[in-house]
User: Fold this.
Amino acid sequence: MPVDSTAATEVTAYRWVPDFAQGLVRDLRVRWALEEIGRPYRVRLLDVTKPRPEEYFCEQPFGQVPAYRDDEVQLFESGAILIHLGLQDDRLLPTDPAQRMRAIAWVIASLNSVEPAIFPLLMINVFNKGEAWTVEARPKFMERLNSRLKCMSDALRDKEWLEGRFTIADLMLVTVLRQLRGGHVVDQFPNLAAFIARGEARPAFQRALADQLAVFAENEPTPQTA
Assistant:
């Protein structure tokens, strides 16, 4: 298993998050990539319920996870970390320059064109649930999201993976689309639903998810009694 407390590669993660976020925190993206290439890594845990240590903002300017370091670099932002790992290992990115850059373009598209359309839905379903303004806002949010999903569905067509073989492009898009879990938004695009299922079925994803969830289970807060 790549999780190794003595490893040179380090990923930051949260010690615990509420149920709605479990399995979705972005260190999962980096864990998955490291599992795909069998690279050991250690995990440094942060408490999501407390302010970040001041020195952490030198590593991650927004105080989020993951931050990443290895013998060569210190990085933040999951997309940048995945690109770094892909450039180091052709199991994550092709060596052909044209194919490599296409895959990188899809990573950026997932973050810039798909994920921002998902955020408003998370707001009205989770963070602002029940507030009056969400009733009026939902149709507009859904219209934009469905438009983006249709573009992705049309681009994927009947392909197994975005660029003919599994790359960080697929890893990123699967983890972005998984934020829609528990609803039926993706069901209207069967090829996207099947794409997510293929990603989740990969052994490396299963190991990464299990390791993230195990940390949350070990550190679940004790319920307060009255």
In short: The chain has a mean pLDDT of 95. Strands lie at 10-14, 42-46, 67-69, 74-76. The first strand starts at residue 10 and ends at 14.
